[in-house]
Amino acid sequence: MDPLAVALVLVAVHFGAPLAYYVEAKRWLKRPWDVERDLQHTPTVTVVIPTYNEARHIEEKLEDVYRQDYPRYKLEIIVVDSASTDGTAEKARRWAAAHPDADVKVVEEPQRRGKAAALNATLAMARGEVFVITDADCRWPQRDALRRAVSWLADPSVGAVTCLKKPTADGPAGVEAGYRDHYNVLRLAESRRWATPIFHGELAAYKTELLRKIGGFLLDIGADDSHTAAKIAAMGYRAVAAEDLWCVEAVPHNSYHKWRVRRAQHLLQHFLKTPVEEAPPPMQPILLAEKYLHLANPWLLPAAAIALAAAATPPALALLAAGAATLAFKPYRTWAAAQLYLMAAAVKNLRDKELVWEKLDK
Ligand code: GDD
Ligand code: MN
Predict the structure, then answer these.
(1) pLDDT digits (tens, 9 = 90+) for 120-168
(2) Which of 98, 147, 175, 185 is deepest in the core (most CB within 10 A)?
């Protein structure tokens, strides 16, 4: 077959598949939720803050949770620190002593074994009916974030809820915000259809009994938040991103690319270990599409470029140049960057899964 034709097909599929999924997702967005929310539903809640060297953030994070408009006697806060070297645990303990009206426990692991292991240690002791995880370096701008999150869990069909994300700052070339818009539409659409396979550790709430049933957080998958949600969805429960729940996440200025690649590594680990056939029927097209888009689709772009370069005919080279020129447009640059992160992540996963990762400065 003519390399030019091959390249054109690859490019068409590379851009066509996500576009088709996005168009389909927009249709799902019009569906009713079919969820009975209840903002008066206030089960006991355990909020877990896993920390590794978060001295800069821990007090503000504790304030964030403390400020929540939620019955205080129903709220347990657990900081689980894995041998931080910057005094995070001491700061948390001091904060707890200064706020005797809050039920704050500080668990100190003698050794750092990663976030998932730390979360599992708290799952054994949590007294809440709902188990909420939140990163130390993110903020809940809504005072009723917790109430909104658990309101979805009032419905017996919903097993897990997560927030949508807003970055505090853009990454290089405004990449972060552009990427998030498209991304949030997909999370909401998937949630309306059944469940989204991508959850956010900034605020992820699970029914504690379901977490215990699936055996807690898997130690060999970095995306602990997403993978547990998908497992709960595989049990037949909805796992949704709530349309009215927002978290603000800090974006690292210095190591932005490194950060994106590591997170992509974790997502790929999750998708590789989430079989489509084990999901309930309404979830299957979602998983199939997301697995394809994360694991395979990015590679069609360099394959097309190689085919064009190999053809080396004037039309092929002109097409290659046109492809490169589109990088001048921000949306395309954002897209291309995401593809690069996914490919770099796949390669890096072969060597190191980054299950215990470097703390990047935010
Ligand atoms: N206890 C404990 N032990 N906590 C840890 C460890 C650990 O070994 N490693 C990281 N954490 C904590 C951090 O202190 C932070 O509160 C949270 O886990 C997330 O880690 P970050 O270093 O801030 O990573 P991120 O901003 O990229 O986080 C995102 O991606 C992760 C997976 O790649 C979030 O979505 C996380 O929830 C997600 O786990
Ligand atoms: Mn973070």
Answers:
(1) 999 999 999 999 999 999 999 999 999 999 999 999 999 999 999 986 6
(2) 175
Tell me the two tokens of residue 3. Answer: 């390399």
- Residues whose CB falls within 8 Å of the CB of residue 317, separated by 6 or more in sequence, listed in order: 308, 309
CA 251 – ligand 2 centroid, Å? 8
Cα separation, 188 vs 92, in Å, equals 35
**Measuring from each residue's beta carbon to the nearest atom of ligand 1, which residues come in under 6 Å?**
50-52, 54, 80-82, 112, 114-115, 118, 135-137, 200-201, 222-225, 259, 262-263, 266, 356, 359
Query: pTM for the full model?
Result: 0.95
67-98: b (≥16 Cβ within 10 Å) or e? ebebeeebbbbbbbbbebeeebbebbbebbee
**Ligand 1 atom with least separation from CA of 357:** 9
Task: Please determine, for residue 176, whether its predicted confidence score (pLDDT) is greater than 80.
Answer: no
* Region class of 9: left (phi > 0), else alpha (psi between -120 and 50), else beta: alpha
User: 3-state DSSP call for residue 244?
Assistant: strand
Nearest to 57 by CA among 135, 169, 159: 135
Strands 45-51 and 238-249: unpaired
- Strands lying side by side in the sheet with 103-109: 103-109, 75-82, 45-51, 130-133, 204-207, 158-167, 238-249, 138-139
pLDDT over threshold 70, residue 198: yes
Helix (H) or strand (E) holding 149: helix 145-153
What does the chain come to in residues?
A: 362
Query: Measuring from atom 35 of ligand 1, which residue has the nearest CA?
Result: 201
Ligand 2 centroid, distance to 327 Cα (angstroms): 28
Q: Which ligand has an atom closest to residue 357 CA?
A: 1
pLDDT digits (tens, 9 = 90+) for 260-318: 999 999 999 999 999 999 999 999 999 999 999 999 999 999 999 999 999 999 999 99
Among 38, 45, 93, which residue's Cα sits nearest to residue 72?
45
Nearest CA to ligand 1 atom 21: 359
Take atom 24 of ligand 1 and give the residue whose Cα is closest.
359
